[in-house]
Amino acid sequence: MRTWLAALRARLDASSTPYFRALADGSLSRAAFVESQVQFFRAVAHFNRPMLVLASRLERLEDRLPLVQNAFDEHGRGELAGSHERTFLELLARLGVAEREARARPIGPAVRAFNATLDGVCGAGEAFGAVATLGIIEDLFAVLSAELGRGIVARGWLRRDEVVHYATHEVLDLEHSEMFHRIVEPLWATRRDEIAAGFELGAHAFLQLFDALHAAAAAR
Fold it and tell me: pLDDT tens digit string along 15-73?
């Protein structure tokens, strides 16, 4: 499974997709980037909800526990100021968008589609395929968090020590993805099609979200 995953990552080359190329080469304006991040906030805030639904569908305690632990991390391990939702709001505030403004902004179709995909697969899809879907999203986000942090600093929008949220996820999401991968790895020989389809779906949905955010920014 690990070899298959490595080949998938290489094929996707997530950091070279349009959104991240534009961030790296400076063609993504600050205003467009900030607007895309306001939208992305609503995906970040939603992510733990389908995860908890999926946890309730897994029969074995050993399989449920990593998802519950992951969701606990998402909630700041009981300290709400450290929750992923709040740290992302802090990042937006440093970029000039107050919490009230971020929460009042209508959710665009790109984020609605992404959230609905996760709700559907975690609520009614094949359970271990759904685990793989969440796992590859965490896997890719560790890489993309580093790209986002570097882009913000390179463009001079914030100093490195001001980039909250993404600095954490460069490391934390590697740990989280490993939690998911360890659940499905023992099943790879017997449920490969289900798990591989979950990996493919998660990668497609996540990268499509950024492609759609880039297209929306270009259209403004």
Answer: 899 999 999 999 999 999 999 999 999 999 999 999 999 999 999 999 999 999 998 88
Q: Which residues contact 179 (CB under 8 A, 6 or more apart)?
A: 66, 67, 69, 70, 135
Do 170 and 145 form a contact (C-beta atoms < 8 A)? yes
Q: Name residues whose C-beta falls within 8 Å of residue 51's C-beta, 6 or more positions apart in sequence.
A: 67, 70, 71, 74, 122, 134
Residue with tokens 């920014």: 217
Give the number of residues written for the chain. Answer: 220
For domain 27-219, give its CATH number from 3.50.30.80, 3.40.50.1110, 1.20.910.10, 3.40.1280.10.
Answer: 1.20.910.10
Per the listing, tokens 């709040």 go with 86
Coil, strand or helix at 82: helix
Residue with tokens 């001001």: 162
Give 3-state DSSP helix, strand, coil % of the chain, rounded to 5: 85, 0, 15
Instruction: Determine if the pTM surpasses 0.70.
Output: yes
Question: What would the pLDDT profile of 157-189 be if each residue is shown by its tens digit?
Answer: 999 999 988 876 556 567 888 999 999 999 999
Nearest-Å Rg of the Cα atoms of the chain is: 17
